[in-house]
Structures are given as C-alpha cells and as structure tokens.
Specification:
Length: about 775
C-alpha cells in the first residue's frame, strides 16, 4: 500500500461485515480476513446486506481489529452514523457495547454541524448518545421560530468550554465548571460561568447552578440557580433587575419573576422599589386559546411616602369568539386616584392618560352582509390638575347597533353593476353622573341607496339616504324652551364623480407615468332644527382631505350639518412604470358653499363665507433614501395660513435615520421637531428627539441617548424629559445592557419601545433579544 492510501471500512447493522472500499493490500486483507469473511448461512456472500439507517462508517489511514469485539482506527480517524460524525487521531470502536473511545484532537459533530464539541479525549456510546468529553469546547445552534406574523426564523447560537461535558442521551448535556455565551470567539465579552451547566435541547432550556454572569471580566450578578432559554423562547425564571430614575419616583428598582405556566399562559410578578414613593407590587397575566385571548394587570402600593395613601391599578382585556359568528370583548381599567399615572409612570404616553375605558361588547356577524352589536361603555376620568378639570364623556348604557350592506342588487334589471343598499341604525342610552348634564335615549335609522357607475377612466356614484333620529331627553332640571321629545328626519343626497387620465412622460432623465385625477363631490343635506339637542357623543371633525368628502361636518349623531355644497379636488402623481412606486404626488382641494350655514356646533357663529380654506398636499421621494411630505391649509378670505405641516426624512440604511418636522396651527402651536439615529464613531450610535415650541419658547420633549453595539451585546443610555403642565416637567433616565439572545439588564424593554415611538426609522443595532425577556 502506498503511503497516504486511505482505507474505508464499514459496519452494516445486523452483521459483522467489515469491507474495504478502495485499493488492495494483501497484508491488510489477511489481517482482516477473520473479520471480513462472512459466516455460512442461507444468504449468499454475493448478495449484499441491505443498507440500514444505523449504518456506521469508520475510516482512517490504518485500521485493524478483532472480529466482533473491537476495531482500532489510527490516523485521521473518522466515525459516521446518520448525522453524527466523530473524528480523532485514534478511535477504538467496541462493537458489542456500541462504544467508541477517542484520543487526540477529538471533534464530535451532529445535526448537520449545529452541535459541535472538541477536546483531547472522549468516550461515547453511539446509539444511546451517552458518554463524556474532557476539557471540551462546544458550540450549539437552534432555529428560533418567528415571533410575529411575517417575521423570519433566526439561528440562535451559543458556545463555551468546560472541565468536562457528559452526554446524557439525545439532546441532553451536563457540564462542570462550564461557561455559556452567545458571543463568538475564544474570549467572549459576556458569559455565564457555572459550577454545573445543564443543556436540555428537548425543552430548549439551560440550567446554571452556582453561577454568575460575567461582563468584560467583571461579575455583574450572581446566579445561585437559574434557567435560561437556548433558542430565545419564553421561559420561567427571575428576570434581571430593571432600574429607573425620574423626578417623580426617584431611583427605582424592579425584580420581575416570569412564570411560563403553559405555551398559552404566563404570569409576571414585579416587586418595584421607588426611593421617593416606597414599594409597589405588580402582576401581569396573559392567556390565549383557540377562540379567545386576554391580559389582566394589577399594581398595588400600600403606602405612598409622599401622599401617605394606598395607590392601585387594575386592568382587564379579554377577546372571545363565542361562536363562529358571535364575538365578545371586555376592556376594564381603574386607578385609585387622578394623579396615578403622572406620579408613578416614567412614560409620557402613560402620564397623559385622562379617560380610562370600561366597556363590554358583543357582536354577531350574520351572513357576511349584516351585523348586530351591543355595547356598555363608561370611563374613569382623571383630572390631575384640579384647576383644569377634565370633562367626563357620556356613558352608553347600553348601545345596540344594526348595520347591513348589500352591494350589486338588481343588476340583472338595471344592466349595470347594480344598486348598493346600506342600513345603519342604533339605539343608545346616554347617562351622565353630573346633575347638570341631561340623560337621554337616542334611536337612529339611516337607510341609503347608491348606484355606482364605472367606465374606463371615469366613475359617477349618485347616492340618496334618509337620516332619522328620535330623542327622549331627561334634562334633570326644567328648561321650558327646550323640547324633551325630538324627532329629526334629514334627507341626504350626494353625487361623487371622478376622472383618471394617464400619459407617459420623461422628467429628470427618467421615464414616468403621470396621472391627472380630478374629482367632484356634490352634497345636499336638508336643514332641521337641532339647537335644543344636547351634545352626547358629537364633536367637530378635524379639517382635512378626508373631511372634504364626508357627508357631515360632525362626528356622532347629535348634529347633522345642513349642506348645499360642491367639493373639487385634483391629484397628480408620477409613477415609476417599472416598479409601480409613487415618486411624487400633488393634491389640491376646496369646498364651495351655495348657502349659509344654519346648523352649528356648541353655539359657534354660523359660517357665512362661500368657500372653505384651500388644502394642498405635496409628497415626494427624493432619490432612494429621502422623502418629503407636507400639508398646507390656506384661508383665502383673510389671506393667511391656518395650518401647515412638513416632514423631511432621510433613511439611507438600517440604523441611519434623520427626521426634521415643522408643525403650525394658528393660535394653537408652532413646533419644530428633530429626531434621528446615526453612527457616531466606531460602534457608537446616537439617538435623539427634540420638540421645541416656538410659540411658548421652550422645549416640550427631549430624548438624548447613546447606543454601543458590542456584537453580541448592546449598551443603551440616555435621558427623557417631557412637560406635564405649564410649569412642571418630568425627567427620566435610562441605562440598559442587552445581552443578545439571553437577557436585558437595566431599564427593561421600555427603552426600546420609547425610542421606536419617538424616532421614525429607528433600527435596532442588534437582532431583537429573546432570552429572559418576555415576548
């Protein structure tokens, strides 16, 4: 045999056949003759045994052994069975016990290389997957399923080293004096160091005993016993502490415990200490079934050190498909006092809450074209500033609505797409605790009939309806000039029409499809007296393009604006013919009145002008990464701008975003808004959001932060200041260390959610962390 010639020998399960697969060497064949010769039997030696799934292949530069006892392979030795591969300088395979001893440069791989261990020596029972490897280094990977619809699966990897690693069956490992980290490389920035480390890849759970978490060679917290996920999934355990600091609460520390009760049930208990307030206990439970889901949350502070009172919060949300057609939901919220969120929350979105919803809802969907719903609704209204009490909305006890839509009726007789029939109706009982506010019942029925007519490049839709309402009002206090029983029937007629022109054009060196889309909308609504109807659920729509083409100026059902008006608008777009992307849009719109206004809202002066403000919108993509959007409301009667917004965005790549915005509303606000995320130097990123009121000459909200991407960890630090009232602001500070696919230490998930809400285009500089953080 020539030097370097490689011999391969295989063992077929159920036989003792060892067969050389390449080359010939008389001395080697003689050495193996006792092993290679088949025993006499009914099967001919010329008939090969069938190949088994448990086939074991052994290869080496030199192979020798004893029949049915052991086989020794030396020099580039390799053993293979299914997805398992074991290599070493020397392998000894004991056939009766299915055991292999490996010495020198041992490397064990299986599951297509997702599990790899190496060390100087090992013993291993191949079929049972039991044994031990000495002084191993190991790397293991698992696919994490997507957490959200549309997301992609992701590979989660971990590695480490130990004094010894025992194999305790398929997917079961136990190591002593071991480390574990999701960092790559021989010297990870962070790792778990444990006296005993158990890795259970059936449950995808790791267990560390007598351990600690080390970051940059500094132990940051002790783990006497802890379980952690191996594939970024939810798992029971004590979550790392969450720290906070704000003007209202002082320094805060929370240590949550997460209990993954079942795949569809979990519970988080959160003791929270606040240096200025005291101790609070919080709990949040989530659940999900095939036809229902929900969440309940509670917080309790037995004694606030500042107010001297007990403070609490309770919340319940439940959604349930009781039958395939019947849906129900409950949303209940309560706090102990008006300043609860302002005093105890560090988030502006929470501290600004004033109306807490309390409602139960049922809906029946019948036949796909009609539905019946019932609602009971009230609010807890908070007034944090006694000098400016918050108005309380009316309670609906109950509200019952029946709605139906039947498109395309009578198409056979009309020779068109047919008539669209619609019905909207409701019965509602309005109740208010204020003795100066009347209660009432309101019955509404609104049948509608429309005829959509479509041709290439043109459409017209005439529509007619009758809006009927009846009120029975309990005014609580006698008002002789006001009606208590009111009936109102308002006929409404409209015609909506539009054209669509297209042409090919070339601008700025590129080909485009340019559109011209004029639209005309005529509305005629009869006048009915309504000044003695109280406002139960009605307010005025914000003026905009959507409101230009609406039937009513008001929300709710207490005011039906009289109208004899025409709305005109024109839109033009530049569309990339290759991709269909819209590169530019310009839109202009205005409404013209043929009579003075008679129905008013909240005793305001009726309109007498013959046209509305002019609305103009402009949006454009400037290159691949920049965009500009603006909206302008101009009052031609007095020649001044009433409202203007403009936003410029630049987002060239992930984690690079710049935003500049300006908002103006006459006599209300004039703000400049700047936000962004950008690499600074090395692995450092800056994040900011600043909102400055030009009207009040002060900063209303500021976020300033730094992020550092360590590859397998991220550090976030910063501050958040926001105005509560005219002369009162809250300052909050955050510090978060996120260890990829393990956990987050510091200010918790609120930091990332705050930045995502505040900075459009913000991108996480690492993959989202799973670990001990809840989904």
């Amino acid at each position: 045999m020539q030097p370097g010639t490689r011999r391969k020998v295989k063992k077929v399960s159920g036989t003792n056949n060892l067969v050389t697969e390449e080359g010939s060497d008389e001395s080697l064949l003689q050495t193996l003759s006792a092993v290679a010769a088949p025993e006499a039997g009914p099967e001919s030696s010329e008939t090969p045994a069938p190949k088994s799934r448990e086939e074991t292949r052994i290869s080496a530069l030199r192979v020798y052994g004893t029949h049915a006892i052991d086989l020794v392979a030396e020099g580039e030795a390799e053993l293979q069975r299914d997805t398992l591969t074991l290599t070493a300088d020397r392998l000894t395979y004991r056939e009766p016990t299915d055991e292999v001893l490996a010495d020198g440069n041992v490397c064990l791989k299986h599951d297509d290389g997702r599990f790899e261990m190496s060390g100087p020596s090992a013993s291993f029972v191949v079929g049972a997957r039991t044994g031990e490897i000495i002084d191993p280094k190991y790397a293991m990977s698992r696919i994490r399923p997507p957490r959200e619809e549309g997301a992609q699966p992701r590979l989660v990897s971990g590695s480490g080293h130990a004094n010894s690693l025992r194999f305790e069956g398929e997917n079961q490992y136990r190591a002593t004096n071991a480390t574990w980290s999701t960092c790559k490389g021989a010297k990870p920035d962070w790792y778990i160091k444990a006296g005993e480390l158990e890795l259970d890849y059936d449950r995808e759970i790791g267990t560390a005993r007598n351990g600690k978490v080390v970051f940059k060679d500094v132990p940051i917290f002790w783990l006497p016993w802890a379980e952690f996920p191996l594939a970024g999934q939810r798992h029971s355990g004590i979550l790392p502490p969450t720290m906070e600091s704000s003007t209202k609460t002082g320094f805060g520390l929370s240590i949550p415990y997460y209990w993954n009760i079942a795949p569809n049930y979990d519970l988080t208990l959160t003791p929270r200490y606040m240096s200025r307030r005291g101790t609070q206990l919080g709990a949040e439970a989530r659940y999900m079934g095939a036809t229902y889901s929900g969440m309940t949350r509670a917080e309790y502070m037995p004694n606030d050190s500042i107010t001297g009172e007990a403070r609490s919060l309770a919340s319940l949300q439940h959604r349930h498909w009781l039958t395939p057609r019947l849906y129900g939901s409950i949303d209940l919220n309560r706090v102990s006092d008006d300043r609860y969120f302002e005093d105890l929350s560090t988030r502006v979105s929470m501290s600004s809450k004033v109306n807490l919803l309390r409602e139960g809802r049922l809906m029946y969907v019948g036949g796909g074209w009609w539905n019946l719903s019932g609602l009971a609704q009230s609010y807890q209204t908070l007034s944090p500033d006694p000098a400016r009490p918050t108005g309380m909305p009316y309670r609906r006890l109950p509200q019952i609505a029946l709605n139906a839509t039947r498109p395309g009726e009578f198409s056979r007789f009309l020779g068109t797409s047919g008539l669209d029939l619609a019905w909207k109706s409701e019965f509602v009982r309005f109740v208010h605790p204020d003795e100066h506010r009347p209660d009432a019942t309101r019955l509404t029925a609104y049948p509608q009939l429309s005829l959509p007519l479509h041709w290439p490049g043109f459409y017209i839709t005439p529509k007619i309806g009758l809006h009927y309402t009846r009120y029975d009002i309990d005014r609580k206090q006698s008002q002789p000039d006001m009606r208590d029983s009111i009936s109102r029937a308002v006929p409404i007629f409209s015609i909506d029409s539009g054209l669509n022109f297209e042409r090919n054009t070339r601008l700025f060196g590129s080909d485009y499809v340019q559109t011209l889309e004029p639209r005309i909308y005529y509305l005629n609504t009869a006048y009915r007296r309504q000044d003695d109807i109280p406002l139960f659920d009605t307010s005025r729509y914000d003026f905009g393009f959507a409101q230009l083409f609406s039937e009513n100026l008001y929300t709710g059902g207490d005011r039906i604006a009289d109208a004899n008006q025409l709305t005109t608008a024109v839109t033009s777009r530049l569309i990339n013919p290759a991709t269909g992307a819209e590169n530019l849009q310009v839109i202009l719109g205005q409404r013209y009145y043929f009579q003075d206004q008679r129905v008013t809202f909240d005793e305001r002066t009726p309109r007498t002008n013959t046209r509305t403000d002019l609305l103009a919108g402009f949006s454009a993509r400037m290159g691949r990464y920049a965009s500009f959007d603006s909206l302008w409301q101009y009052n031609p009667s007095v020649g001044q701008t009433e409202r203007y917004t403009a936003t410029m965005r630049y987002n060239p790549s992930h984690a690079r975003a710049l935003n500049l915005g300006y908002r103006f509303a006459r006599d209300i606000l004039r703000d400049v808004d700047i936000s962004g995320q950008w690499p600074l130097w090395g692995r450092w990123y800056g994040v900011t959001r600043m909102t400055y009121s030009l009207k009040d000459s002060k900063m209303t909200e500021t976020i300033a932060g730094l992020e550092y991407n360590g590859g397998c960890w991220v550090l976030r630090m910063g501050a958040h200041r926001y105005t509560l009232r005219e002369r009162e602001a809250n300052n909050a500070y955050f510090l978060q260390l996120e260890l990829n696919d393990f956990t987050s230490i510091g200010s918790g998930g609120n930091v990332v959610s705050l930045i995502q809400r505040s900075v459009p285009g913000y991108g996480m500089i690492n993959e989202p962390s799973g670990g001990l953080l809840k989904d």
